[in-house]
Amino acid sequence: MTTQTSGSTVATAAVVRNVGGPFALEKIDVAAPREDEVLVRMVGVGVCHTDIVCRDGFPVPMPIVLGHEGSGIVEAVGTRVTNVKPGDRVVLSFNSCGHCPSCEKDLPATCSQFLPMNFAGIRLADGSSPLSKDGQPVHGMFFGQSSFATYAIARAVNTVRVPDAVPLEILGPLGCGIQTGAGAVINSLKATAGDSIAIFGGGAVGLSALLGARAVGVTKIFVVEPNPERRQLALELGASKVYDPRDGSDIEAAIKADSGGGVTYTIEATGIPAVAGQAINVTAPGGTVGLVGVPPPDGQIPATLLDLLVKGVTLRPITEGDANPQTFIPRMIELYQQGRFPFDRLVTKFPFDKINDAVHAAETGQAIKPVLVF
Ligand SMILES: [Zn+2]
Ligand SMILES: [Zn+2]
């Protein structure tokens, strides 16, 4: 890795130096943006489950600055950046290569380089990082942003301009968690009025799937979630019925009865293999199971090939809601402004320097979507 010292900006960043270690606030140097890069002063950043699993050892190099649901104001742009300019309000989303077959078809969520572009902690072009401390490199470019910091380097491809009349500090989660849930329903499953959907897991992604389903007029929405406060919120956000998977009742029979024989679509947002089996079982023949939750590395689909053939169910793994952030984030903001996508109901704000408290609140279920405010 190389570092750059001229024209750099000093930032306060939450650095993780060891697997499982705390987010420690440190002063770091953020290099000036290269030709396709954007320097952003952060205003808010969401905490996503993926930040926590990366802190805890999902293969990312350390030391690293995590954070991938940033929102802020553009400070400087590289010479080839045309989509944003200094002073613009922006949301940062996931990184993509821009030239593989998926990217060329406007489907960056299935970019062939998705894993290295988002998790390698370096610029793929030359292995460098824009971040350093005392001349020593610190890994950055996490999801093309590393936005647990007062300043971040993003790329033009994952920097999305947003309108002025929306609260910028809470918009960051539109770039990952909320896009993942809402996009799964709207873009991947293409659910619409008259469809029915069962959502397993009422965290940030599952409740965003519920918001997406409401926004496109899905008629029957069933949410399975053990936390009673989240079940209550699901009802307030428009769920037709909620179920407690720990109350000992037969959830599958209940959803089948309540949906008239099975739902058109399911969203599996827990990553628990046995729950994926329940999702398959409550889906009507011809329906589709959207697999959104991140499973354990050795997780298997709990169904036989014959099961799938007899049931006639499609399994659909979904990353980032199959969204192109450049078009889907503005769509979600428009729905929000119309009162049809109240994602702010999922947000709990924390000051940036309380990042470890915010992560703890996410881990214990006290907060659905913590957002750090700078
Ligand atoms: Zn690509
Ligand atoms: Zn995420």
What does this structure look like?
With 374 residues, the protein is α/β, with parallel strands linked by helices. It has two domains: 9-175 and 342-373, Medium-chain alcohol dehydrogenases, catalytic domain (Quinone Oxidoreductase, Chain A, domain 1, Alpha-Beta Complex); 179-319, NAD(P)-binding Rossmann-like Domain (Rossmann fold), CATH 3.40.50.720. Helices cover 26% and strands 25% of the residues. The chain is built from eleven helices and 18 strands. It has helices spanning 49-55, 101-104, 114-119, 177-188, 204-215, 228-236, 251-259, 273-282, 305-311, 325-337, 355-364, and strands spanning 9-16, 24-30, 37-46, 64-65, 70-77, 89-92, 131-133, 136-138, 151-155, 159-161, 196-200, 220-224, 241-243, 263-268, 283-291, 314-317, 347-351, 369-373. Helix 4 packs across helix 5. Mean pLDDT is 96; it is low at 1-5. One zinc ion (ZN) binds next to helix 2.
Bound molecules: zinc ion
CATH-derived architecture of the largest domain: Alpha-Beta Complex
Contiguous low-pLDDT stretches (5 residues minimum) are 1-5
Task: Tell me the overall shape.
Answer: globular
Arithmetic mean pLDDT = 96
- Name the CATH class of the largest domain: Alpha Beta
Overall structural domain count: 2
- How many E strands? 18
How much helicity do the residues have? 25-40%
Oligomer: single chain
Structural class: alpha/beta
Ends apart, CA distance between termini: 29 Å
CATH fold-type name of the largest domain = Quinone Oxidoreductase, Chain A, domain 1
CATH superfamily caption of the largest domain = Medium-chain alcohol dehydrogenases, catalytic domain
| Percent in strands | 25-35%
Q: Could you tell me the radius of gyration in angstroms? A: 20 Å
